[in-house]
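Handout for the seminar on molecular recognition.
Each group receives one record of this type.
Step one: identify the two inputs.
Step two: read the structure output and locate the region that could contact uracil.
Step three: write two sentences on what you found, then compare them with the reference statements printed after the record.
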Amino acid sequence: MYTWNDIEQHITVCTCCPLSKTRHLPVVGRGSRSADIMLIAEAPGGQEDQEGIPFVGRSGKILDELLENCSLTREEIYITNILKCHPPGNRDPKEEEKEACFPYLKYETYLLKPKIIVCLGRVAAQRIISPGYKITRQHGTWTYRKDCALTAVYHPSAILRDPAKMEETKADFMEIVRKRDELLPVK
Ligand code: URA
């Protein structure tokens, strides 16, 4: 069985897909390894590729605003991506890249055993919740799988493109905290 350190080491030297040739640094998940809430986005952006840390660029600032608004901190959640390497030009991840990288996400999820999974954006929601997921219509709604509640919210970069999405995404994050308190009343 793999440990967190094994996964991190595998990702650091991974050559499973061609993104390993163009990446600067792979981006391993960050945050609490005993978090109840796991955030999953699609792939690192350019700034993340430079620093090897998820959500350190402009999207990260939006994410921090969303977290702060509902009194969550990065230290109490776990944030990761489906792809651990930056797709050049921020294009959507290719199917084969998602498949090559998916085992890492599976191990992260297995080790973390989150009670709540939050997909950030359409790409993550369609890979994790259902292929036909419509982010505009379904964001903020819940799906249950085994011991875990799953939802999706707009990706922070969608809020950068359309700031009008900020308020409803803040409301979705408040609902995520409400769900955590419902599922885990004493902590
Ligand atoms: N966008 C993502 O989807 N993930 C990151 O880590 C940063 C930006």
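Reference statements: The chain has nine helices and six strands. The mean pLDDT is 97.
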